[in-house]
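Table S2 (continued). Query chain:
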Amino acid sequence: MSTCFQKCDIRPFVVEGQQVGLIKSDVLKHLEKYPEVFCIRDCEQTKQGLVELNPAFRDYNERTEQLEKVLRNLRSEGLFPALQGWRDEYFEVKSERRALLKMERAATPLFGVRKYGVDINGYVRHPTHGICIWLQQRSNTKETWPGKWDNMVGGGLSVGFGIKETAIKEAAEEASIPYDLVKNLVSAGCVSFYFESRQGLFPNTEYVFDLELPLDFVPQNSDGEVQAFELLPAKECVERVFTPDFKTTSAPVVIDFLIRHGHITADDVVDFTQIVELLHVPLQSLYTYRARLEQAKKHQQNLPGDARNCRCGSLQKKSVENGHKKDT
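Corresponding output:
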């Protein structure tokens, strides 16, 4: 990632002075067609370019509406595979303190926006095989990861839904788990990871729950998004999760479960330490524009008077109309 930044392949996406995303050059060239919405700057202070949503958009609804127009245009032009999976489902784009806008879920990889999801590890304690884990096989008609194996229950954290609320909702829709069972959910923290594909950038954080189920419970799908379920002993699950047949962005959740329950250990895997670290990537370290800018300003203030007045530390940007100031 650091190499990409140094080569200017990825720029911060800034809203209201806060970095909320990451934009690659192949997306940037299409955003340049919308100068009334995006201001593309080259910042000498941070040694890094950036893409800023027009600061003239002053509230949540206006930012959402203006960005939505661009996204629908890009979708109609068929420019990005990610937008072919348009769902009319929205994720909130947040700063540290508040939500700034909402964005169509399918578009979030194009802007490198942090996404949050909820996952449930459903398992049983078998008298012969020990811990066995329920996995689902995604429907072949799914827009994303069709036919891939996945953890038993998972879903994105959409606008208007809380974490536990999402877990209960997805448990009912994907696996028909009744409330008298799902009420026994045990929070197991979260995993965070960074993944890149032809769809875009995936800085994901997944809230994880464990759910011990009765031996006689068999999950049944009710929303048409799952074609099969399979109960696997932990050893077989280890083998399955490391194959190309498993959904890449769900593998960390299952691997985390297997580590916590002692089925993947340092004695078993040479790269154990690296695997554990990759399950908890400090994603905040990718969103450092504001901190870097503040650091640069402090450095500038500490320079002698003549150096402090030098133009080399100023913010250079393209001259654009419609709500953006021109450089003078």
